[in-house]
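Page 47, continued from p. 46.
Same chain as before, 261 aa.
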Amino acid sequence: MSRVSEYILITCILALAPSVTMGQQAAVVLQLDTNVPDALVYADQILLGTANERFFSMGLGGHEIRLVAADQFSWSIPPVVTRIHSGTPGDTIVVHLDFPYYYRLESTPYDAEVSLRDGLVVRKLGFTPSTVESTTPLTGVLDFSLADFKTESVVPGAELWNLHVIRLEPLEETGDVSRFALSPPPSRRRWIDYAAIGTALVAGGVAVHFKFKADRRYDRYVETGDPALRPAIKRYDTYSGVALGVMQAGAGLFAVRLILR
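Result:
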């Protein structure tokens, strides 16, 4: 074969190669609609982009489509998953995937009853702490009630993750107030002050430590979308929340003792 013939053959192969590759890659088009436009879109562990792009090209056959929320609480929100299958090149597959809305309900003290009051309709949601899931945003008012404490009310919110941490105030005591005029104890028990402030400092350090560990795993979760990371993120975040609560209790006890002096 002459050099001219070899040159023509190589040129023809290079010209045909892109069209063959494009024919293999652009087999089907996924049209994705969701209520969270900034969610990350994965197909079989491969990141395709964000949901606001709407259209994605993929190969023939079956695929697992997974949406992962990308906000700061995404580790608490399970991904939504569906499977698609197409055997015809050029197909456009329309998929609608919506995330439910989550309401995290916490109170101090805990075990408060939470009710959703919407006009004349009242629906009990459970007791704190708990997480309520809804296909649509909750409307009305959330009432947190506990015996011997004032009822607190908040608007549910319409975000994907809605966190409500309520501090309930005790009811005002009634009757003869003279019974509160007690003499202070002969000893101020300063060791209680030291224990309270020490506990607050240690618990604060522990809360920061576990929060950093949770954040590092959250960053990996956003990059990879690996569901196996969610239990560890939730565990470390729970540890951090408990330590934060202990810190607040210690600081609160110290503040109360200062006021009573």
